[in-house]
Every structure is written in structure tokens, then in C-alpha cells.
Amino acid sequence: MTKHFERQIDKLKTMLLRLGGCVEDSLERAIRAIEEKDPVLAQQVIDGDRRIDMMEVDLEEECLHTLALYQPVASDLRFVVSVVKINNDLERIADLAANLAQQALIMVEEPVTGDVPFNLAEESVWVRRMVKQSLDCLVNNDLELADVVRRSDNRVDDLHRETYHELKAAIRDRPDGAERLIPYLSISRYLERIADHAVNIVEDVLYMALGEIRRHEHEVNHTAAK
Questions:
Q1: How confident is the model at residue 226 (pLDDT cuts 50, 70, 90)?
Q2: How far apart are CA 110 and CA 121, in angstroms?
Q3: Which domains does the chain have, with CATH numbers?
């Protein structure tokens, strides 16, 4: 590997980790906006999504430049390809964080009266942890942590299903409050999708390190365990 190429790889790593930090911060702020019913914080997340979009575009262009100029092969090629895919997953997490923030604004305008028949606290804890662990996995090339993230997705899927069934029961019992309860289902769905993207990230880390495509394996295992 030439010195020029080494510097280019370091540049891609730096850009990717900077993007990951911004995305993680956006998710944390979005969840806090929901928990605290904070419209200012929610709007900050929405307004900040454009900056993350531009970071994603810049990184993709840098990856394409790397492929065209250096024509990497073997593990170097796997690294650049993985960066392109992880870059996309991080941008999607940021988009979903903005969607969460939009739901926070709706909840401020149309608050639920009385006790909410379910809560999303556990699901948000699991998803926050999965995103953090996926980035730690990326930074440290921690393949054991990658498996932890993949297994955690099963729990998030279960929590989302529980929320869906609880929501159906709540709407049946309180049809007049259906519009105020729907945002909770949207939030649960967005969290579940964020967890899927965290799994995508660690699977790309596995591909980067091992050259093996592990996509969908955890889904098959989860289905077989039922």
C-alpha cells in the first residue's frame, strides 16, 4: 500500500467516524425530544438532518474517487465498498431520527390524555445501545460485539410486535383517542428500522474483516428459534 493510498484510507475512516458521531448524537436528541416532549430539541434534529445528508454525499464521492484513482483490490476493495454501504446506513438512521423528531412535535401538539397503555422506553434503550455498539464495532473491529448487535435485533423486533398489539387493544378500548396514539406506533416502527440499520453496519464490518457475507443469517436464526 502506497503512502498516498494509506492517507486516503485514513481520510475515509475519519470522515466515516465523524458522520457516525453526528448520527448517534441526532438519535440521542430525537429520543430525548420524545421523552421530554421538547419541541425545540425536536426541531434541532430536523434542521440538522441536512448537514448529515451533505456529509453522506461528500463521503460517497470520496469513496468513488478512491475507487477510480487507486483501483484497490482484495481487503482494500472490501474496505471501500463497506464504507459506501455503512455510509448509506448511517444516513438512513439520521433520516429516521428526523422522523422520530417529527413525531415528537406531533405529540406536543396532540398530547395523550390519561395514562399511555404502553411505553417505548425499553425499545429505545435497546436501539440506542445497538447503534452505539455498531459504531464501537466499526472503530475497534470487534467481531464479538458484532454478534451481540445481531442478536439484540431479535429483542427489538419482539418489543415492536408487543407495542403493535398493545396499540391495537388501546385503540379498540379508546377509539376517540386513536389519532393521539398512532404516533407511538410510528415511533416504535422507526426504532425497529434503526435497529435493522445497526445490524447492517456490523454485518458490513464482518464482511470487511472476514470477506464473508453474513446478511440475513440472524433473521433465519430468529425464525428457527420460534
A1: very low
A2: 20
A3: 3-225 (1.20.58.220)
